[in-house]
Amino acid sequence: MSAPTISKLTPSSGPVGTTVLISGTNLGSATAVTFGAASATILSNSGTSIFVTAPTGTGTVPVVVTTALGSSTQPVQFTYSSPPGPVISLLSPTSGPLSGGNLVTINGSNLSTTTAVSFGGTPATSFAILSNTQVAAIAPAGAAVGTIQVNVTNPTGTSGNLSYNYMAAPTVTAVTPASGAKSGGNTITITGTGFTGATAVSVNGTPASSFAIISPTTITAVVPPGVGTGPVVVTTSGGSNTTGPSYIYSAGAVASDATPAVGTTAGGDTLTITGSGLAGTTSVNFGTTPGTITSVSDTSIGVVTPASVAGTVPININTTSGTNSSLSYSFVAPPVLSSITPSTGTTAGGTAVSLTGQNLASTSGVYFISPSTVIPATSFTVNSDLSLSAVTPAAAAGSYAVQAVTAAGLSNGVSYTFT
């Protein structure tokens, strides 16, 4: 083996940081490459080539490769040229708080030799060269709310064709409602200023489950679960509000009973809901249909049922602390009788009769009714929603209306005659 030799540099000139191919012989065991007095970084090498990065330097300097067998002596030179001026094409983000302190990433080209970054003439608090195409800078405090120009400087020149917007922090003036259940899930309306581009909303330090920007002065947010009392904070590129109303997590409504729990599909039945924490009730819905509230206290609610189709639905008690849906209510259709067989019997009673009709499944009584007397059947059996069996009571001779009673009320009458 012999000392290394250099036959060619490609390229033979360029700015600091240029990747240079050194061609020659005996280069495989290179231990150092120098450009003048500066050491270059070896990227890769083989017996006939080495890739290096041109180190800091100026003018025309000799390039020397050193191995264990010596150093190259050929007069091969590299000429440093002035780097191109910086070009910036993208800022991220393009706005920030008037107080500064946020990280701004600047993308472009020819940024590896950046010597300064400024915002509207004010030097960045600090900056770091990430690559030839990217610089990261900490924005300084702005002089006033508004748009300024960002400048990047290197030894060749300055680029400043991108704008940055200093924004005021948002303010929060009202939160409606201002309290809710610990389980969260309810929607609040936040009123204030500077909400455009809001990036976060929190309640007592916990991020909102979701939020929507309605306008620069209004945001709606779904409250997360939580406890205690704490601020509602809106965050934008301009920062976060530091003052404003608080939100209170309360225990919420507890519903223990609804009486009665069954009524007619025609609605109009009055029921009483009992429990605790009911004073803040704003509405009571049967499924999705609102009832009519007649009274409210901390321990009870009076409400009139709406009309509804038959079926069982949750009773949704909506309060300022959230919604309680632990109780249910069953709407049943009124009973209808269409026939009785036989339709006559002795005054001694004891006659077995069959009744047909509709909506009879919840029958709680069968009665023989005259203008002066109401006599219950000796016994009755619910066969199906369409059929009943009953045993007639003893009664004075005459014509009686036979009627069934269910949770939905009293049926029409079918005629039965005692003889």
Automatic annotation (TrEMBL):
GO molecular function, one term: semaphorin receptor activity
Domain IPT/TIG: 3-81, 85-167, 169-250, 254-332, 334-419
Protein name: IPT/TIG domain-containing protein
Annotated InterPro entries: Ig-like_fold, Ig_E-set, IPT_dom, Plexin
SMART domains: IPT
Domain of life: Eukaryota
Protein source organism: Penicillium decumbens
Pfam family, one: TIG
